[in-house]
Amino acid sequence: MIEFRNVKKKYKKNTVIDNFNLTIEKGKLVVLIGASGSGKTTLLKMINRLIPISDGQILINGKDIYKMDPIELRRSIGYVIQQTGLFPHMTVKENIEVIPRLIGMSIDEIERKTIELLNMVGLDPEIYSDRYPAELSGGQQQRVGVARAFAAGAEIILMDEPFSALDPITRAELQEELFNIQKEFNKTIVFVTHDMDEAINIADKICILQKGKIIQYDTPENILKNPAGDYVQEFIGKNKIWSKPEFIRAEDVMISKPISVSGSRNLLQAREIMRDKQVDSLLIVDKEKKLEGYITLEDIQNLKDKSLLIKDVMRKNPEFVTENISLPDLLEIFNKLKRGYLPVCDKNRKLLGLITRSSLISVLSSQYIEQGGDN
């Protein structure tokens, strides 16, 4: 875990970071993002003491980094920068082995680790081990940079805009590889970027900065759904959530107060409620609002005895979705659904809302129009 406690950074009379507090949980990938001058790279370089703090504390796993030897500190933290920082006179293999040799790993362990790391970043050891940086593409160089950062078994990796100079396709590939690597190895990664799309694609949490202060620190999903003010809204872009439909949940598009009744009502009452509410079906719930079934107007019309109780004739165990199901999954279910609606329930079957085919189309259409889809 990395903790910033009341950290301040001054350059002469100019304060660029003031009373900064942030906790980065172990095993999470946290992105620091902001416009130029927001302090993101300064904060990153404070973690390995490349930039000294003026006041406050930075703790790693509860230990003040200024009570640690700076050389040992830096050797224990992986570091990846935009220009890769590879030594041009060394081969790929030699570049990866630099830190492991300095910290005294055995030759056998270094050999094994180098092969493992090259495979991890998608470079065949037999092809790339003996090449020099100049013989690699930009994307390949950056892969070697990532492998080197992991070489010493560091629990913390710092990445300063490592993919910003790459073409979009290579950049997307490396983002995906980094995301998968982090999930597999559970490293604590602090990643600096100015690109919100990149942040959303890789982060567990995003820290949006402005002039050395935190404007919002949250998950990508929550930032997209609930931007903290105009600055964040402007920074992420209007309707950005719709560029990541997997972040849109059933609870975001459902009708929150669907018409529901007790199964103890009779069919005549049910029919009158349908007429009054202008619906052609009713959801049946118990006293705890748990979904029990449903009944349609057609069902009622087909039964002669209107004194029958709903619970005795209703359709039981209806299909439903939970509030956390994503929009793409929801659309797939609707494509296979014979009915025109789906109840939304929690894990205990408590009714939370309703999604109808028409309401879903309405939501999607309104977003399409707002984003200029009719041009």
Please, how many domains?
Answer: 2
Walk across the major sheet and give the strand order. 6-7-8-3-9-10
CATH topology of the largest domain: Rossmann fold
Rg over CA atoms, rounded to whole Å, is 28 Å
| CATH architecture annotation name of the largest domain | 3-Layer(aba) Sandwich
Question: What form results from the Cα inertia axes?
Answer: elongated
Residue-averaged pLDDT, rounded?
Answer: 86
The description of the largest β-sheet is: 6 strands, mixed
Query: Per DSSP, what share of the residues sits in E-state strands of 2 or more residues?
Result: 15-25%
Helix content: 25-40%
> What are the low-pLDDT stretches, counting only 5+ consecutive residues below 50?
none
Tally the beta strands: 17
First-residue to last-residue Cα separation: 49 Å
* Number of helices in the DSSP assignment: 16
CATH class of the largest domain: Alpha Beta
Query: CATH homologous superfamily of the largest domain, by name?
Result: P-loop containing nucleotide triphosphate hydrolases
Alpha-beta content class: alpha/beta
Topology:
Elements: E1 2-11, E2 14-24, E3 29-34, H1 40-47, E4 55-60, E5 63-64, H2 70-75, E6 77-81, H3 92-102, H4 107-120, H5 125-128, H6 138-150, E7 156-160, H7 168-185, E8 188-193, H8 196-202, E9 205-210, E10 213-218, H9 220-225, H10 230-236, H11 250-253, E11 260-262, H12 267-277, E12 281-285, E13 291-296, H13 297-301, H14 310-313, E14 315-316, E15 321-322, H15 327-336, E16 341-345, E17 351-356, H16 357-370
Parallel strand pairs: 3-8, 3-9, 6-7, 7-8, 11-12, 15-16
Antiparallel strand pairs: 1-2, 1-4, 4-5, 9-10, 12-13, 13-14, 16-17
Helix pairs in contact: 3-4, 3-6, 4-6
